[in-house]
Design brief:
The chain contains 1 helix and 8 strands. The protein is mainly beta and about 100 residues long. The chain has a single domain, classed as Roll (SH3 type barrels), CATH 2.30.30. The strands form 2 sheets. Strands 7-6-5-4-3-8 form a 6-stranded antiparallel β-sheet, with no helix packed on it. It is globular, with a radius of gyration of 17 Å. The two termini are about 30 Å apart.
């Protein structure tokens, strides 16, 4: 559905799904940024992105387990899938209210 205000077009989208559905929970992230919270797949562990850096032709994210600052950080390669970015083995937690 499109609505037009003062000569500018604005897209209005409606989600036809329950909040608990996978459609809502797995919203792709356009850009991975420092401060985002990601959950490790297959566990309830949450990780905070503390650093993003490029090395040669790849981008990496450094993650630290939330609430456990003594554990060593882990480094995960950022995967670009069209206009979105993902971390292998992790899902974006902030959209699902599950962090």
């Amino acid at each position: 559905m499109w609505r037009v205000w003062s000569g500018e077009s604005t897209q209005v989208s409606h989600v036809d799904a329950r909040r608990e559905s996978d459609y809502i929970r797995n919203v792709p992230v356009r850009k991975i940024q420092v401060g985002q919270v990601w959950k490790k797949e297959g566990s309830d562990d949450s990780f905070l992105i503390t650093k993003i850096y490029s090395e040669a032709l790849a981008t990496y994210a450094v993650l630290r387990k939330a609430g456990s600052e003594t554990e060593p950080p882990i480094r995960i390669k950022v995967t670009n899938s069209g206009p979105t970015q993902t971390l292998a083995g992790f899902t974006y937690a902030q959209e699902s209210d599950s962090f």
